[in-house]
Structures are given as C-alpha cells and as structure tokens.
C-alpha cells in the first residue's frame, strides 16, 4: 500500500540517498518541500506510492535507514474523499468533514443567503482555469472608520485542513456573535474578510486527480510541467531561494504576481490596506505560529508586538487544548521567499501571521476527519487571541 515514511538522515551520505530517492523515484516529498532543503539531523517526510514502495524500501534498508510513519495512506485518502454531505444545512457534522470545491461554493451561496444582512460574497478575481475567488465579508455593524482583518485558506491545494478551518471560522463567528464575548468583541470592532479557497484549481485537482498536488494549475510555454507555488509568487524577495524550475514544487512563477490568484489577492489587499490591520494565512502542517520575515533573518520593526501576540496565542492553545505550537519568525523556521505574509507586512499590514495547523507529521497532509474539529478549535483560539490583541493596540 501507499506509505508515508519519516526518516532523519544522520550523515551527508544519507542526505544524498534521500535526495536521490525523492527525485529519481515516484514519490512525494512533504517535508521539507524541496529536496534541496534536505539536511542532516532534520526529519524528512516522504509519501511513497505502492508502485515505488519496494524499490525505495530496499534502497533505504541497504543504507540502514528506515522508519514507517503511516502505512495504508491510500485507504486514508479514500475515506476522506467519501463525501456524502452536499447540503450545508445537514447539521453540525458538516464542519467536521472535508468538502469538494462545488460543496464549498454552494456553502458560500447558502451562507450569504442565510445571513444576507451581515455577510457579503465579494468576487476578488478568478483562477487560471477561470474559477471564481470569493471572499466573504462579515460586517456586523456600520461603525465609521472600521478596521478589518483578512484570513485566507487553501493557498496550497493539498492542505485540506486549511479550507476546513475557514468554513468553521465563519460558522463560529456567525453562530456565536452575541453569545461568545471574544468573537462578539472582534466583530463589533472589525470587519472580517475570509477567502476559503485561494487556489481553487489546485484544490479541485486534489479531489479529482492527485490528492497531494500543491501548486495552482497554470500552464506555460516551453514546459509540460504544470503550476506555480502561489506562496512563492508574491513580490517579497521574489525568486531569492525559491525555484525557477517549472517542475519544482516551489516554482516561483515567471515574475511576481504572474498568477491570477496571487494578483487578485494582492490587488484586493492593496485597495484595502488602510482598513485591513491584521493578515492571517492558514497552512498545514507542523503546528507553528509564524510572523515575518520568512525570506531573510532580519527582524520586523514591531518584533516585540508580534512575538507577544504569537506567544499569547500559543499559550492559550496549550492552556485549552494541551497542544504545543512553536512560534517565531518564519525565516528561522522555513525560509519561504515570495510568501503572502511577508508581502502583506511590507504593504503596511503590520500584524501578519502564518498559521501551520495540525499535526506534526503523523498524518501530515492527510489529517483524518476525526481531528478536524480540534484542529479548527485550536486555530480559532489562536486567531481570536491575536485579533483581540490587535484591537487593543
């Protein structure tokens, strides 16, 4: 069966073996995201389909390095794709399942219909394959000069827990306004923009063709390789350390904002930069709360504020859910040039965060549906902690 392996190379020779395995065999590297970033003493998570399994395991055993993390990964994928719920009104379990793109679009329609006085769907642009990019605007009162926050999900197609969080967040905000003090304070003070799926073409592809697809689905002349890593395509140290190879998982595109999805989000944020004070982008996996910068080790000028907010969020997650989230500047954790959080920060949105949700690698991108609820609650706690902090400041 398909397997997910976790291997920590101890020597440079083992590093080279893993680089070779991840590039020469049909496998899917989860962590790090590119074979160039494999290094000694750092865990490598590798998805190995059944047809490569024997050759890969033989090679690893020959070098005395093997550790199975998750067997029967294909069964897990099959279970998650059995989506029998198409009606958003079918009870609370709707938010404890993963949903295909069409269901998310119908949920957007239903939500704007059911809460027509407080929720608007804004078409911010469309994808390479001409799918609409809808952001929901939650606005519970008409106070003048109101500030706002932005949350986007699903920039990387295979990170299914991310769109699941965006849906769950909107549901919580609308259901508990005037009941939960924190969400009430946030919505009284701020408008909230939520983009549930920033990469609809890639997300659709994960449901129909390749569950572990990461990039968007754009085509370019001169190559058969498809897609750009949208989180390397923003104009923040673009191209410095990302890949210029169209076949790479971290291909940065031909120029900053070359992709319609990136450009749509960037245009919207540019035109609302005076009101949007908090930017949050939701990813998985590794349980981290990160802030700029992700492409250099320079420190942002409001480092102490960002650190205090991330620490507060991590402390609250630990307090209520006994789960550990690391926090800090992205550049110390995962060097990602061209990322949306750094770009938003440079635009002037000084509170800018990347959330890496559950888990730490046991299931990785295949987090079971039984864990969606808890993962979303942890992230909700983090978002509320940071948003209340921003309002205070």
UniProtKB/TrEMBL annotation:
SUPFAM superfamilies: Protease propeptides/inhibitors, Zn-dependent exopeptidases
Cofactor(s) recorded in Swiss-Prot or TrEMBL: Zn(2+)
Single annotated GO MF: metallocarboxypeptidase activity
A Pfam family that the UniProt record links to this protein: Propep_M14
Residues at the active site: 356 (proton donor/acceptor)
GO biological process: one example: proteolysis
Keyword list, A-Z: Carboxypeptidase, Disulfide bond, Hydrolase, Metal-binding, Metalloprotease, Protease, Signal, Zinc
Gene Ontology annotations for the cellular component aspect, listed alphabetically: extracellular space
Peptidase M14 domain segment(s): 97-390
SMART domains in the cross-refs: Zn_pept
Family stated for the protein in its record: Belongs to the peptidase M14 family.
Protein name as it appears in the record: Carboxypeptidase B2 (plasma)
């Amino acid at each position: 069966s398909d397997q997910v392996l976790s291997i920590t190379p101890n020597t440079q020779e083992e590093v080279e073996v893993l680089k070779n395995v991840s590039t020469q065999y049909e496998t899917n590297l989860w962590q790090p995201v590119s074979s160039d970033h494999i290094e000694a003493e750092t865990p490598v998570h590798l998805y190995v389909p059944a047809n490569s399994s024997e050759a890969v395991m033989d090679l690893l055993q020959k070098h005395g390095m093997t550790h199975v993390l998750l067997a029967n990964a294909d069964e897990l994928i099959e279970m998650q794709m059995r989506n029998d719920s198409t009606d958003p009104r079918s009870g609370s379990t709707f938010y404890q399942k993963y949903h295909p793109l069409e269901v998310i679009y119908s949920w957007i329609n239903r939500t704007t219909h059911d809460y027509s006085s407080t929720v608007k769907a804004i078409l911010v642009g469309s994808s390479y394959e001409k799918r609409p990019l809808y952001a929901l605007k939650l606005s519970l009162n008409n106070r003048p000069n109101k500030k706002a926050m932005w949350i986007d999900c699903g920039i990387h197609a295979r990170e299914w827990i991310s769109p699941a969080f965006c849906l769950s967040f909107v549901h919580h905000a609308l259901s508990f306004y005037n009941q939960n003090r924190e969400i009430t304070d946030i919505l009284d003070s701020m408008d909230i923009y939520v983009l549930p799926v920033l990469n609809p073409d890639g997300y659709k592809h994960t449901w129909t063709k390749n569950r572990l697809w990461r990039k968007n689905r754009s085509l370019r002349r001169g190559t058969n390789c498809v897609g750009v890593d949208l989180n390397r395509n923003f104009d923040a140290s673009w191209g410095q350390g990302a890949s210029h190879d169209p076949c790479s998982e971290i291909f940065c595109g031909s120029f900053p904002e070359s992709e319609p999805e990136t450009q749509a989000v960037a245009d919207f944020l540019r035109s609302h930069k005076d009101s949007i004070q908090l930017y949050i982008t939701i990813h998985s996996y590794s349980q981290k709360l990160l802030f700029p910068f992700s492409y250099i080790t320079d420190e942002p000028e409001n480092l102490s504020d960002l650190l205090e907010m991330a620490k507060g969020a991590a402390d609250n997650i630990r307090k209520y859910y006994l789960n550990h989230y690391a926090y800090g500047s992205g550049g110390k954790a995962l060097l990602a040039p061209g990322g949306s959080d750094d770009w938003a920060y440079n635009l002037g949105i000084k509170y800018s965060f990347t959330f890496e949700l559950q888990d730490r690698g046991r299931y990785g991108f295949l987090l079971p549906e039984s864990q969606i609820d808890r993962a979303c609650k942890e992230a909700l706690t983090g978002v509320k902690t940071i948003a209340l902090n921003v309002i205070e400041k």
